[in-house]
Amino acid sequence: MNLHEYQGKSILKSFGVAIQEGIVAHTPEEAVEAARKLNEDTGTDWWVIKAQIHAGGRGKGGGVKLAKSLDDVKEKASNIIGMNLITPQTSAEGKKVHKVLVAQDVYYPGESETSEIYMSVLLDRAKGRNTIIYSTEGGMDIEEVAEKTPHLIHNEEVDPAVGLLPFQARKIAFNLGLSGQAFKEMTKFVTKLYKAYEGCDASLFEINPVLKTSDNKIIAVDAKVTLDDNSLFRHPDYAAMRDITEEDPIEVEAGEAGLNYVKLDGNVGCMVNGAGLAMATMDIIKLSGGDPANFLDVGGTANAERVEKAFRIILKDPNVKAILVNIFGGIVRCDRVAQGIVDAYKNIGDIPVPIIVRLQGTNAVEAKELIENSGLKVHSVVLLKEAADKVGEVLA
């Protein structure tokens, strides 16, 4: 589950991580009130207005602006709220901005220069260890840094059974070229950041930039946080942070129906029971010359209601030119699935795309007869190769 910047920062703050203070606002008027409150609490008289969407690169799209007066805050917030923000991480249509974060200005003058640092914590699945990735080149796309100056990117592996050790936090601060008070502040920052990552069952914490201020404080200026969906039952307060307006509405609808659905960019809809079979089905579609339009797992209880709902969700994608149903009847009986397909077809009406059905397992023979005798425009197949050939045929 992805979080907004202000939500990620609130989690960081709860673990003692120093952050750029800010207040979320849904209207220009709320933004002005937030700016006044920040002025009272922090003394800041400049503010940063940040669009809150689930995408990076907001500054490049005009979603991050500096305001130097309350009138400026209102104007900048008015321009950002309601805009369709296009960034390198959004679609061509962009994402509509519903709220902004009004944040304190932390780039104040001082005796020493400020510096921006990149830092993230994530799981290295190949090694089975958490990894802290960091670089002195903060504020830039880390992919660009990796391509042009890979020697400036460091990583520190952390044994999850032991946790982050003090010498590792000091090593990170040293590699970042810090000294004195900034060195001490960075070791505290890294230690608390790792505790936050583990404590909230995150799969990613990315802070770009981490700022060393002119008075040697270390502050999280941004926060991109992804939580592990499977752990949300342990964190109902975090689960309540979910913003479905930032998610694909079809995926949200599928989730509410108990279907595992992920939209893809292809032209063949998939309806399968079991993640492994779904992956194999997507491979079959590719081999047939098509492209999967979705991943959809109806689960072990593929009854008529779930099958109908799955059809309706698949058909909401205008790119779908054919649908392949590939069900293995282990727990569920194939004839019941077949009856569900027939009932769903009749309830939906004339389905405008060809449907290829492969049912194998318990009562597969009866299921095939039921499909073939239904009088519907449904192609029944037995073998995976037949399914692939039929998909290629209907797409031709």
List keywords for this structure.
396 residues, alpha+beta, D-amino Acid Aminotransferase, Chain A, domain 1, Dna Ligase, domain 1, Rossmann fold, 3 domains, 6-stranded antiparallel β-sheet, succinate-CoA ligase (ADP-forming) activity, magnesium
Structure description:
- The protein has 396 residues and is α+β, with helices and mostly antiparallel strands.
- The chain folds into three domains: 1-19 and 109-246, 2-Layer Sandwich (D-amino Acid Aminotransferase, Chain A, domain 1); 21-105, ATP-grasp fold, A domain (Dna Ligase, domain 1, 2-Layer Sandwich), CATH 3.30.1490.20; 248-395, Succinyl-CoA synthetase domains (Rossmann fold).
- It has 13 helices and 18 strands.
- The protein has helices spanning 5-14, 28-42, 70-80, 142-148, 166-175, 180-199, 236-239, 249-256, 275-287, 304-314, 334-348, 364-372, 384-395, and strands spanning 22-25, 47-51, 64-67, 84-85, 95-96, 100-104, 115-124, 129-135, 153-158, 202-212, 218-220, 224-227, 260-263, 268-272, 294-297, 322-329, 355-361, 378-381.
- Helix 10 (304-314) packs across helix 11.
